[in-house]
Please model this.
Amino acid sequence: MTDNGSRGLVVRGVSKRFGATQALDHIDLDVRPGEVVALLGENGAGKSTLSNVIAGTFPSDTGDMTWNGEPYAPGSPGEAIGRGIGLIHQEMRLLPDLSVAENVFVGRLLQRGGRIDRAEMNRRASEQLTRLGLDIPPTRLVRTLRVAEQQQVEIAKALTLNARLLILDEPTAALGSDETDHLFERIEALKGEGMAFIYISHRLEEITRICDRIVVMRDGQRVASHDTAHVPVAQLVEEMVGRSIERIFPDTGAPRERAVLRVDGLTAADGTFQDVSFDVHEGEILGIAGIVGAGRTELVRAVAGVDPVKAGTVAVEGDVLRLRGPRDAIEAGVVLVPEDRKNQGAVLDLSIGDNVALPNLDRVAKRGWLTPQGVASAAGAAITEMGIKGRPSQLVRTLSGGNQQKVVIAKWLARRPKVVILDEPTRGIDVGARAAIYEVIADLARSGMAVVVVSSDLDEVLGLSHRVLVLSRGRLRGVLAGAEATDTAVMRLATA
Model:
């Protein structure tokens, strides 16, 4: 790559403190036009803080930045995007009941003659969607789009603002392999136009595919950098966590004979999956694999009583459930840890204790009275059992992603369920915390619980599961066990 001199983003000596926490400590970073720089580190390493400083969410305490040779110190995200730098968050920030075009131009709706010029908005939005290879009408409501499509709407929004540097925060966390490939194709095309990217991901195997250079952070400091993306994963992990960690899945024990959960002929009310049957035994981990859109999440939501079904039955220990809502499943011993822990799994602005108590009031409230002592006691037990790094009174929002996930799991384990369903249990969680979640899942199986794991990470599914159920386009394509459960075999069924 040619040297662009002062072109691009130059960050020098940037620090940021929040109370007693030194989130950033004299960070240097360079991002040149037409390149993708990977920003790696565990949760809490400072990646998001640095991204927010660059994107204008809040100012740094020390240091300075330049952008294309000019001083750069944005006072707001709007000022940053006005200068050509945008941040695409892991959690989508679109308005679901507005159209694609309205979302692209929200806050700056185009007008003509004093009226909103929807035709021009649709034309310009469509132009950027085509640039991204996304074939959807700009008039379509955002809530009807898949996650991958919503993500590209976010990118299209930035492109209409003439962004020249995009910060992508965990862009593939909710994507399958095909949609990830498409995103990478779009990034490569935009690189060719001179656009630059800061790429944040916990999926280290992606880095060599899309990134040009790597910067590693730990505890708010820049601890390593590489002028190539072809760095062994083991080395990157060691740099990130300060110790050597291999991705070794724990021993999950052997399943037992008795079936705990039996699903027969289940068909979704909205048609997202049809005629799916399977069972899960005591001490068994059943993995559910398939590309995005296969119906994995919809299937487990139906089993947990969240979404209605058109046909079929769900039985626990031989008793067919009448599922009118999640309460019926919970009372029967079936609990779901959802894929979106921040919006569906935890109440971020409540404490660990309150989160644990909420679904367990019948157990925590003695003789109908809920006391601070009772909440603290339940939370203390959960913290000890799950190894949560936090205090009962600590707000869940202040915890790392891995500890937030442990809180969500803990609140359901307090009910001593018979079946635990985990949808994307390590989404957005760093490699160090993943090992702890894997151990929790293995402990559940070894204790005799029936466990269902849905994951877009194929290695995760294969590494944890005794058997793997494969869905494709809403239909069961096969169940693989033992030596036949390979990545090749799964993908062959998943693309059938």
